[in-house]
Write a structure and sequence with these properties.
Blueprint: E1 2-7, E2 13-16, H1 22-31, E3 38-42, H2 48-60, E4 63-67, E5 70-74, H3 85-90, H4 98-105, E6 107-111, H5 124-132, E7 136-140, E8 143-147, E9 155-157, H6 163-173, E10 179-183, H7 189-200, E11 204-206, E12 212-216, E13 225-227, H8 232-244, E14 248-251, H9 260-269, E15 272-276, E16 279-283, E17 291-293, H10 305-312, E18 318-322, H11 332-337, E19 342-346, E20 349-353, E21 362-364, H12 368-380, E22 384-388, H13 391-394, H14 400-406, E23 410-415
The chain binds ligand EPZ.
Ligand EPZ binds at residues 22-23, 26, 92-93, 116, 119-126, 160, 162-165, 186, 302-303, 325-326, 368-369, 396.
């Protein structure tokens, strides 16, 4: 096991490039199964979730070589359609494999997905979408068996704009016979990136980024090359670290429109934001608490709820955060309280009373984004903090401590 040791009260200064987006890479790696051939994906982050997805693809028969920031995925010999249970439990995103395996082999067997413990992670919307394009699905003994004599276009309406279910539906529909419409689709930028990748493979998709996505089924897809979009959640986390430490941080390779809701809130809080086409800079100001409600894109992203809650612990006044997306996404609160934060959680709402300063403590990362928020708190706190269970953080933040060190942070990784 490993931990971070952080000495706080260092103002972060400087600029950095962020890696490719975890939540764009995972569905795109799954989508590479839709054809036989060698696809090249650039700007793939070095994080544990990518290694887990790589392990699954290799178990299914793919050959994968990493060359620097690129993954070379040869899916010629993919023949298996069953995903091992231990790998399904390790990562929620393994559910993305249903669409591509159904699309290519008309069959898939998997157990219920695992992932971060941020709430029940049902897949009813995924199943409803796949049934709409002709899949017959049986759920028995903890396993899901899906198969289709053939896939035919359908009209899918989501009760909730689920990111994963939208992506699974797109990947199942691209090789279906006829047209598919996805209504109340998720609008996250990562879905645009998946649409771009699939269209490069020869698919005919339009509408990603809006709530209605249209897919004209084709008979065959081809391997292609693609560069993953930058990780907006990683960018938002570093910008908040800059604001929290009264520093001056620039992210060099991020389009501001991916983070409009976040930048708007940071300005409301008192941070000074400057942007250009591919660049965001945050300079500290006097931080004051505001209210936030997490929402599907383009609303405030749930993945930045934990980091901004950390910021609120040392902002003037009281803040209220309502987490509307996941049921159990305040696991960072108990750990932050050990650092002197004053937070009360009532159901899906957290009420944060700002204090003048946090103090360093020994804490443990309960999940990926909560872990990131604890590091931010430690960077701002007086004294030394130890953050255990950094394997959670390594799931989604590439070389987190190295990037923070490049901004002047006093953070080291240690074996426990
Ligand atoms: C994706 O998860 C992201 N993961 C999550 O990022 C992100 O928080 C989430 O979208 C919301 O933006 C990846 O892209 C790999 P959802 P996903 O389906 O697809 C309910 C991170 O930290 N729901 O949009 O699982 C569900 O319970 C991770 O990087 C159903 O009810 O999210 C949740 O309450 C965490 N039935 C809500 O929808 C379903 O069939 C949002 O889930 C599917 C989802």
């Amino acid at each position: 096991m490993e931990k971070f040791i952080v000495t706080g009260e260092v103002q972060l200064q400087g600029s950095l490039k962020i890696s490719g987006a975890k939540n764009a890479t995972l569905p795109i790696m799954a989508a590479s199964l839709l054809c036989s051939g060698v696809s090249v994906i650039h700007d793939v982050p070095f994080i544990r979730d990518i290694s887990a997805m790589q392990e699954i693809l290799v178990l299914l028969g793919a050959k994968i070589v990493r060359e620097g920031n690129a993954l070379i995925i040869d899916t010629t010999n993919v023949s298996k359609i069953e995903i091992p249970e231990h790998l399904m439990r390790e990562m929620r995103a393994s559910v993305f494999l249903m669409g591509p395996l159904l699309g290519r082999f008309k069959k898939v067997r998997l157990s219920y997905p695992g992932g971060c413990d941020i709430g029940p992670r049902p897949i009813d919307l995924h199943i409803k979408a796949l049934e709409k394009v002709g899949a017959k699905i049986r759920e028995r003994f903890g396993f899901i068996d899906a198969e289709a004599y053939k896939l035919t276009g359908g009209d899918i309406h989501f009760d909730f704009p689920s990111v994963g279910a939208t992506e699974n539906a797109m990947m199942a529909a691209v090789l279906a016979e006829g047209a598919t419409i996805i209504r109340n689709a998720a609008r996250e930028p990562e879905i645009n990136d998946l649409q771009t990748f699939l269209n490069k493979m020869g698919a005919k998709i339009s509408g990603a980024g809006t709530d209605t996505i249209c897919i004209e089924g084709v008979s065959k897809l081809f391997a292609t090359e693609h560069t993953i979009m930058p990780d907006r959640i990683q960018a938002g986390t570093f910008l908040m670290a800059g604001a929290m430490t009264h520093g001056d941080v620039t992210i060099e390779n991020i389009r501001p429109e991916y983070l409009f809701s976040v930048l708007d809130k940071l300005e409301e809080i008192g941070a000074h934001i400057t942007t250009a086409e591919n660049y965001i800079r945050v300079k500290a100001g006097e931080l004051r608490g505001v209210d936030i409600k997490t929402l599907p894109y383009p609303g405030f992203p749930t993945d930045l709820q934990a980091p901004i809650l950390s910021l609120f612990t040392i902002a003037k006044g009281t803040s209220v955060i309502t987490e509307t997306i996941f049921e159990n996404r305040f696991k960072h609160v108990d750990e932050l309280s050990r650092m002197g934060a004053k937070i009360k959680v009532e159901g899906r709402t957290a009420i944060i009373r700002g204090v003048s300063k946090l103090t360093g403590a020994c804490v443990a990362a309960p999940d990926l984004r909560a872990g990131g928020s604890l590091v931010l708190a430690a960077l701002a706190a007086e004294g030394v903090s130890e953050i255990e269970s950094v394997y959670h953080i390594d799931r989604g933040y590439e070389k987190f401590e190295e990037k923070l060190q490049s901004l002047g942070a006093n953070i080291i990784r240690r074996r426990t």
